[in-house]
UniProtKB/TrEMBL annotation:
Belongs to the enoyl-CoA hydratase/isomerase family. Residues 14-96 form the MaoC-like domain. It holds the Pfam family MaoC_dehydratas. This is MaoC family dehydratase. It comes from Pseudonocardia zijingensis. CDD domains: SAV4209_like (cd03453).
Amino acid sequence: MTAVVAEVGTELPPLSVRVTRADLVRYAGASGDFNPIHWSDRVAGSAGLPGVIAHGMLTMALAGRLVTDWAGSPAAMRTYGVRFTRPVVVPDDDEGALVEISGKVTAVTETDGGERIAKVAITAAFEGKTVLGRAVAEVAVPSE
């Protein structure tokens, strides 16, 4: 495993994820969120959406993966929050929707207990437009 470099300005390795309708079905089963806007074009359209959309929490989880992959463990994540700003429209084809995720360390602090915490600003985009706003994670990183 590569050592985590956590300095202000460190850019995390980008992550590109394709989300397909099959992914939405699997996520619905795991989460219990069977809202038809996540699987029915007819219902999504009647709700004023441009098509079937990915679950917001699925998009959030994918963005969180960027940070946990970089940190080396999901247990390193201390806090994580986002605002849902735009939906990810998932076409009914084999390619799905491409979500592009990046992150950058904006601060590194030390807790009273001596734990180093990196604050990471995350950007998640679909078709060149941001889909998560105020996406920030705080993650424990090794001491230098």
